[in-house]
Amino acid sequence: MIDFTDRLSRAALRMQESEIRKMSTVGARVPDLISFAGGYPDHTTFAWDDYRSIVADVLSGSDSTVLQYGPTRGYPPLLESLGEIMKHRSTSVMTDELLITTGSQQGLDLVGRVFLDAGDVALMELPTYTGAITAFRNVLGTLVGVRQATDGIDLDHLDWAFMQQRAQGRRVAFLYLTPNFQNPTGVLLSRAKRLALLNWAARRDMLIVEDDPYGVLYFEDSATEAETRPVKADDVEGRVIYLSTFSKTLTPGFRVAWLVAPSSLMTKFEAAKQATDMCTGTLDQRIVHEAIVRGVLRRQIPELRRQYQRRRDAMEGALTTELPDSRWNRPKGGFFIWLELPRGVDGEALLTTAIEQRVLYVAGTAFFVEAPERNFIRLAFSGAPPARIVEGVGRLGRAVRHQLVGRPKNCITP
Amino acid sequence: MIDFTDRLSRAALRMQESEIRKMSTVGARVPDLISFAGGYPDHTTFAWDDYRSIVADVLSGSDSTVLQYGPTRGYPPLLESLGEIMKHRSTSVMTDELLITTGSQQGLDLVGRVFLDAGDVALMELPTYTGAITAFRNVLGTLVGVRQATDGIDLDHLDWAFMQQRAQGRRVAFLYLTPNFQNPTGVLLSRAKRLALLNWAARRDMLIVEDDPYGVLYFEDSATEAETRPVKADDVEGRVIYLSTFSKTLTPGFRVAWLVAPSSLMTKFEAAKQATDMCTGTLDQRIVHEAIVRGVLRRQIPELRRQYQRRRDAMEGALTTELPDSRWNRPKGGFFIWLELPRGVDGEALLTTAIEQRVLYVAGTAFFVEAPERNFIRLAFSGAPPARIVEGVGRLGRAVRHQLVGRPKNCITP
């Protein structure tokens, strides 16, 4: 057989399977495993009956375009609905500023391709979403980390990192961040910092890529809708590219998400998407559009907030009991707890024991573009019902205790 | 507003909307237009009733994975079915050599990303499929044209082009071609040339990217299944990457296609896809899988062959009457007639008059990576019923006659 190594592009040589997806593959092989690994939405919330009746209607055959190639920008009535959705997010958007993407992952990929040449800098939170890391790495971007505090990105460090890259002669293309219930930390960026970020972007003539999959999933006991107001909402200069998705509110199976960008950029995004997959699934777009028009989305969201809040509560309760020496900041929304393990426990090393105990998570190191912190792990509380969460955290507790007990033993046995 | 020009990547600066997609946008604005532009399958052949009953079953809610994130490689039972489909195409394939892609367009994009660094050469037929051109251009590939004869690619010219690029110090990554009913020329690559191509690839240590959307759609009056045998079928060394799709047989709306590559390459393709859209739509994959299992695909294909053959006949008949001074080679399958206009008629210039006459096509220049021939146009006979084809060709005839009459007049009036 052929050796392909010297035939691969520089990008391909760097490509690696995502840690999160790898964990899913591992998980599929272990019976009775409880997975806190993938940020999977709760499938019991999926509106099966609504989708069934929607599909029966849209597949009647009376409208042939339902299964034909569609416009690259997206199904026009869905674009209209997105205008309404953005209005509910305090953001006024014209139809020509919208692009439907095949999942937000495609939005991230397009952002990378439109803005990054090899070596160009993307500023990223430390830690940040792995999907953004791989998308920007795959176009050979230089990823530079910016520290976060409990109220979000550290603005002093941001400016320092920016100036340092500039001083080294690099082109800094944008700052990527997830202001609402960040993946993996769960952090909610404060209102003051959102406005300060826009000032910073204007002062430094920078672009901001705002990823917002979780904003509508705030928990009513600790956050308000006003606190999730997108950075984009106050973007008068057109410096913010905004991404959001239906994967966490309707279902990931449809692969329907969207990107908002100044209309002058849209022809480039559209051309990039055209060469990538021509158009997003047309049936999927119809289903999503009908789910909006028929009120499915509107009915779902308050229920999802309650559901995920209950799951967060179950996980926090169990962590307090089972892992009293671990620490975390209570997430006010979203899917994740970013857990600091007891001192000296390495998140990657723990994984083998955890899998033996039939529980799965993602080691924190996967989320860092530099200076990985080894004693963090990401736990998704979204996918499992409360009783399973409690059981899973119990298993995790046992794994940690084994690790702590096992360690000195390993040092003295040959 | 911000000027984004100096913020775009080199790739983005080169990105342009596809001519074909642009024509579709134009077409949508003209009432009673007959379009021969996009390679749209005939929507009356779509199996609406089957899809409706399939979806009612798969959305019962009993299997939660139907709407959840799925494996990046694809839905495992669909991968199994693809093994069977490839066997019917005389090609034996292991599951770990298969990847589901979001349309073949994504397959082309992944091929570009995995093999091409900026400046690397992709050898392409003259003319060739625009979607491949843009995919490889978007990773800054250097696209080098190879002439074709009526039985397919010119092997002498291929080797000459290859050696010339090598001599100039460029890395030649692969040859891209569409052996079956090529887009846009409709050419069927001869059996002898298929085998000669594999010999050439072995001698020059090259890879071949074989794009096969139309192979099963041969016309029984002029071609046999044996003649469409993929190059991949005889690829003992693993030099051929093969792409195919359900867009032309089931529907394009599902965005489900596949790529076959040596398993040692698959981790790279998978990682590239992961960062691009995570996974192909999971509902779409289920529908396609059920359509295979329930025999929908098998039932459709012979009917599609007859249907498209009738449409080709309608177009050829009308062309003979309406455009007696034009020339074409009879396509033995697929969707397209590659029409050489009467001497001196420019395909791009004709477009304005054609749209006035309410008929649309794609000017041939869009399909050339170099040395465009200006008096060719691509006519898709797939999308319109025979009567509309006849009417559309009539309009095209009028447009050509206007152009021929108008031209000398334009030369003498000031």
Structural class of chain A: alpha/beta
Number of domains of chain A: 2
The parts of chain A where pLDDT drops under 50 for at least 5 residues are 408-414
- N- to C-terminal separation of chain A? 42 Å
Q: Give the number of helices of chain A.
A: 13
Shape of chain A: globular
**CATH third-level topology of the largest domain in chain A:** Aspartate Aminotransferase, domain 2
**Largest sheet composition of chain A:** 8 strands, mixed
Strands across the major sheet of chain A, in which order?
2-9-8-7-6-3-4-5
Largest interface: A-B, 89 and 89 residues
Overall pLDDT metric of chain A: 94
How is the quaternary structure best described?
homodimer
Summarize the entry for a quick read:
Two copies of one chain form a homodimer. Chain A contains 13 helices and 13 strands.
Overview of this protein structure:
Two copies of one chain form a homodimer. The first copy, chain A, has 13 helices and 13 strands. In chain A, the strands form three sheets. An eight-stranded mixed sheet of chain A has the order 2-9-8-7-6-3-4-5, sandwiched between helices. A three-stranded antiparallel sheet of chain A has the order 10-13-12. In chain A, helix 12 crosses helix 13 (386-412). The first copy, chain A, is of the alpha/beta class and 414 residues long. Chain A starts with 9 loop residues before the first helix and ends with a helix. In chain A, 43% of the residues lie in helices and 14% in strands. The longest helix of chain A is centred in the C-terminal third of the chain and has 27 residues, at 296-322. In chain A, strand 4 (142-149) and strand 5 form a beta hairpin. Chain A has two domains: 5-46 and 298-404, Aspartate Aminotransferase, domain 1 (Alpha-Beta Complex), CATH 3.90.1150.10; 63-296, Type I PLP-dependent aspartate aminotransferase-like (Major domain) (Aspartate Aminotransferase, domain 2, 3-Layer(aba) Sandwich). At the A-B interface, helix 1, helix 2, helix 3, helix 5 and helix 6 of A face helix 1, helix 2, helix 3, helix 5 and helix 6 of B.
